[in-house]
Amino acid sequence: MEAVTIYAEPRSANEGSLAKLRARGYIPCILYGKKVGSLPIKVEEHVFSRLLTKGTGTRGLVSLHLDGDMIPVVIKEIQRDVLKGSIIHVDFHQISMKEKLHTRVPVVSLNEDTILKEGWIVQHQAREVTVECLPGDIPENVVVDLSGLRIGDTVHARDLVLPENVRLVSEPDELIVSIVAPRRAEEATEPEEKAPEGEEPPTAEGVE
């Protein structure tokens, strides 16, 4: 996966409150790393949002352009406003392109329509798996082909075909996808219990 470049600026204490910074269209961030320590920075909100929707998402490699330097990073944490859902803070983690890391990669299903045409159901048990690789080898996704699967068939993490130089870290037995029969539209109903002959059923006032 190629790194996506995003521009960042240093963030100083005299810029005012974080709320004012957000009002100007910036997201307050922290860059962590062995070389930089803990560095307050800021990125433009619309740029970061575009990164999430059209770039690497939250799992890929990002090249942070800061003060003329290109710093390879990954997104460690995104904090959102509980009510509005807007991004209020981001943590970036500086990485080495020569050191392997653990990261989550989305699992994408192919030919799911062939299963649905049969009237069967595809149950997605896990949408991501954890892998280990160099930052430059992080795959955009891992593909699982559902064609040829039938009711009762399953796909586990060990069945996934990973790119070269990428190692599975998730439990091999972790269930990814299963094919099941559709539930019956009508469920059998239990017959109502009748009161013994000669006895009146209890009224609402007599039920505790």
- Category by helix and strand content: mainly beta
Strand proportion, as a percent range, falls in: 35-45%
Rg measurement, Å: 26 Å
CATH topology of the largest domain: Ribosomal Protein L25, Chain P
* Net shape: elongated
Assigned CATH class of the largest domain: Mainly Beta
Question: Can you tell me about this structure?
Answer:
The chain is mainly beta. It folds into 2 domains: 4-94, Beta Barrel (Ribosomal Protein L25, Chain P); 101-180, Ribosomal protein L25, C-terminal domain (RNA Polymerase Alpha Subunit, Chain A, domain 2). It has 3 helices and 13 strands. The strands form 3 sheets. The chain has a 6-stranded mixed β-barrel. Strands 10-7-9-12 form a 4-stranded mixed β-sheet, with no helix packed on it. A hairpin with a 2-residue loop joins β4 (62-66) and β5. The radius of gyration is 26 Å and the shape is elongated.
Task: Give keywords.
single chain, 6-stranded mixed beta barrel, RNA Polymerase Alpha Subunit, Chain A, domain 2, Ribosomal Protein L25, Chain P, 2 domains, 208 residues, mainly beta, 4-stranded mixed sheet
